[in-house]
Write a sequence for this structure.
């Protein structure tokens, strides 16, 4: 986790949750990037809590993962 972010930072929590769901669904970062149309390097930054993801990208990821956007906003481990 980057030094400048805290475990309570919403970007970090979102990234942890995204990685959790991605892995549970059997996607690699590359696979999810291809399926969602989002660059793999950007996706990696989101999962590390380094990027402030846009709402449209949350919807793209949710669609690719076949979950609701709200599911991506739940706390990790939920």
């Amino acid at each position: 986790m980057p030094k400048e972010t805290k475990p309570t930072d919403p970007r970090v929590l979102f990234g942890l949750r995204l990685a959790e769901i991605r892995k549970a669904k059997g996607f690699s970062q590359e696979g999810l990037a291809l399926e969602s149309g989002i660059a793999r390097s950007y996706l990696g930054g989101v999962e590390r809590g380094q990027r402030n993801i846009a709402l449209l990208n949350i919807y793209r990821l949710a669609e690719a993962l076949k979950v609701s956007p709200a599911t991506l906003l739940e706390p990790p481990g939920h």
User: Anything to note?
Assistant: The mean pLDDT is 93. The chain has one domain: 10-71.
